[in-house]
Amino acid sequence: MASHPVSKLTGEQYLNIERAAEFRSEFLDGEMFAMSGGSTNHARLQQNLSGELYVALRGSPCEAFGSDFRVKVSGRMYTYPDVSVVCGEPRVAGDDNLLNPVVIFEVLSPSTERHDRGLKFQHYRTIDSLQDYILVHQDQVRIEQYTHRPDHTWTLRDYQLQQEHLKIDSIGVSIVIERIYDRVKIAPATS
After folding, report:
1. Predicted local distance difference test score (pLDDT) of residue 3
2. Number of domains the chain contains
């Protein structure tokens, strides 16, 4: 029996399917990947980030968007970051694909952490406007901030204390980490 090659979708085909779909899917290299539901911690972290950013950015030229706003990374990748921030007027393609995020937040989960750190970050780094990529852990108080430098390198700042402030210079914001983790249930560490 001969096997049939699996045909890949184009970005345009993906968008046509996605715009009519009941459930969201991300797109990478011709394939669609259904997005799973998040945990209570995931939802709280995403909500806390959005709320803190809304307050911190009030009156500034920057604006935060939730996970319903799709980001077009390239013709090869479309994603739904947990939170993205734009400064100035959002540039969009097709009225529903953000092109110019300055900051992207992803709340890590066991099923997505490897992808968020690896291939997704590799693609995100191709976005000219992106200055900060921030990974928020949901099983411990820990935030990893990757910042783009003028020499085209990325530096890491690792926050692990609730009393610290997450400082995002690209958007002029400083948030107490304790507020990001408000109501998030962290299991005690076992030795």
Report:
1. 46
2. 1
pLDDT in tens, 129-141: 999 999 999 999 9
pLDDT digit string, tens, across residues 164-186: 999 999 999 999 999 999 999 99
For residue 158, pLDDT over 90 is answered with: yes
**Three-class HEC string of the chain:** CCCCCCCCCCHHHHHHHHHHCCCCEEEECCEEEECCCCCHHHHHHHHHHHHHHHHHHCCCCEEEECCCCEEEEECCEEECCCEEEEECCCCEECCCEECCCCEEEEECCCCCHHHHHCHHHHHHCCCCCCCEEEEECCCCCCEEEEEECCCCCEEEEEECCCCCEEEEHHHCEEEEHHHHCCCCCCCCCCC
The band of 190, judged by pLDDT with boundaries at 50, 70 and 90, is: low
Say if 99 falls within a structural domain: yes
Report if residue 121 sits inside a domain. Answer: yes
List the CATH number of the domain containing 149.
3.90.1570.10
User: Is 123 part of any domain?
Assistant: yes
